[in-house]
Amino acid sequence: MTQQLPEGHPQVRQGKIGVLLVNLGTPDGPDPASVRRYLKEFLSDRRVIELSPLLWQPILRGVILPTRPRRSAEAYAKIWDHERNESPLRAITRQQAEELSAWFATRHEQVVLDWAMRYGSPSIAEKLGTLSEAGCRRLLVMPLYPQYSAATTASVCDEVFAQLARRRWQPALRTLPPYHDEPAYIAALADSLRRAFSEEGEPEVLLASFHGMPRETLDKGDPYHCHCQKTGRLLREALGWNPERLRVTFQSRFGPKEWLRPYSDATVKQLAGEGVKRIAMISPGFSADCLETLEEAAIGLRESFLESGGERFTYVPCLNAGETHIALLAKLAERELRGWL
Fold first, then answer.
1. Residue 19 pairs with which residues in a beta bridge?
2. Helix 183-200 crosses helix 323-336 at what angle (to 10 degrees)?
3. Tens of pLDDT along the chain (341 residues)?
C-alpha cells in the first residue's frame, strides 16, 4: 500500500499484522537473585495467587522469597544450558518463533511474528512496542497454553490489555482460544508417543501429567480441569487404549491447599507399589519443556518411581519446536487471522 503524506509528516509504518507467541516465563539465570526476581513477579500476579495482597504479600516477602529461590535455583541449575546461559523454556520458545516466522515469510509476508514471556524477559510490554514500531496495526496474541486457565491464558490477556491501555494508537486485537481438543494437537501428541514407544517400548501405564491448580479454581468455574480431562480422553482414544492404561494426573503443588487430584507424585508411587514396572509420562499442558517437565518429572518423578520398585520410566518430551508442533501453531494462527490475511 502506497502512502501519500503531507510534506514534513513523519513516516508512519503500517500495513503489517503482528503475531505474538507468549509463554509463562523463566529466570534470567539459575542463581537465587534471578529466581527471586522472577518469583516475586510471578507470585504477585492476582490471577496466580487469588488472595488479597494485604494477606499474601507479607507471606510472599517474609516467608517465601527469603527461602524458596535458593531451592528453585538448585533445580534450575540441573537443566540450565550453561553454554548459552539460558533455560530450555527460553531457548525452545525462541526456536518456535523462529520456525513459525520462517513459515509465514514464505506464505504471508505481511505477518511479523515475535515472542514474549508473561513473567521475566522478553516482556509483553517490550514486544508490543517492537511490533507497533514494525507497523503492526492488527495483532494476534497466542498464549501457548492448550488448556485454558485464568492463571495462565487470562493472565496473558490481562497483561496485553493493560499494556495496550497505555497506548494512544491501539491495534485491532485477537487472542487465540484454547486448543485442548484441536484434532491436529491431539494427533501431534499421539504421534510423539508412538515415536517414543517405537524406541523405548510401550509402557504398562501412561500418565498425562498436567500442571496442578488449587481445587477451588474448579469450584469457582475455571474450565482447566475439564480441558485437561478432555485432552486425556481424546489422546487415549487416538491411541486406542483403555481408560486404565492412560491416566490424567496433576503435578507441581504449592502451598497447603488441596489441589486438583490425582497427584502425579502419589500416582507414581502407587503404581510401583501395585507392581507396575514400566510407565511413561507426557506433559500435554506444556508447549515447551521447562523446569516442571525436565526437573520435576523427568528427574524427580523418575527417581520416585524407581525407588518405589519400578523398573523403567520414560519421559516423552513436549512438542517443543518439532515439525508437527510448528505445523499446528501455523494452522491455529492462520485460522485466527482469517479476514486479515
1. 113, 140
2. 180
3. 446 767 776 676 779 999 999 999 999 999 999 999 999 999 999 999 999 999 999 999 999 999 999 999 999 999 999 999 999 999 999 999 999 999 999 999 999 999 999 999 999 999 999 999 999 999 999 999 999 999 999 999 999 999 999 999 999 999 999 999 999 999 999 999 999 999 999 999 999 999 999 999 999 999 999 999 999 999 999 999 999 999 999 999 988 889 999 999 999 999 999 999 999 999 999 999 999 999 999 999 999 999 999 999 999 999 999 999 999 999 999 999 999 99
Using DSSP's 3-state secondary structure scheme, residue 280 falls into strand
> For the stretch 266-305, what's the b/e string if a residue is b when 16 or more beta carbons lie within 10 angstroms of its beta carbon?
ebbbebbeeebebbbbbbbbbbbbbbbbbbbbbebbbebb
For residue 152, count CB atoms less than 10 angstroms from its CB and return exposed for 0-12, middle for 13-18, buried for 19 or more.
Answer: buried
- The residue assigned the cell 507479607 is 58
What 3-state DSSP class applies to 339? coil
Q: Which three cell numbers stand for residue 288?
A: 515447551
Tell me which residue of 309, 315, 242 sits closest to 284, measured CA to CA: 315
Give the three cell numbers for residue 40.
516475586
Go through the chain and tell me how many residues it has: 341
Q: How far apart are CA 268 and CA 272, in angstroms?
A: 6
DSSP assignment of 58-122 equals HHIIIIIHHHHHHHHHHHHHHH-BTTTTB-HHHHHHHHHHHHHHHHHHTT-TTEEEEEEEEESSS
Residues 58, 59, 61, 66: what is their CA dihedral angle, to the nearest 10 degrees? 150
Range 227-255 burial, b when 16+ CB lie within 10 A, else e: bbbbbbbbbbebbeeeeeebbbbbbbbee
As a whole number of angstroms, the distance between CA 38 and CA 20 comes to 21
Query: For 207, phi and psi rounded to 5 degrees?
Result: -100, 125
Residue 160 identity (one-letter amino acid) = V
Spatial neighbors of 225 by CB under 8 A, at least 6 apart, are 213, 217, 218, 260
Look up the pTM and report it: 0.95
For residues 78-108, one letter each, b for 16 or more C-beta atoms within 10 angstroms of the residue's C-beta and e for the rest, the string is ebbeeeeebbbbbbbbbebbebbbebbeeeb
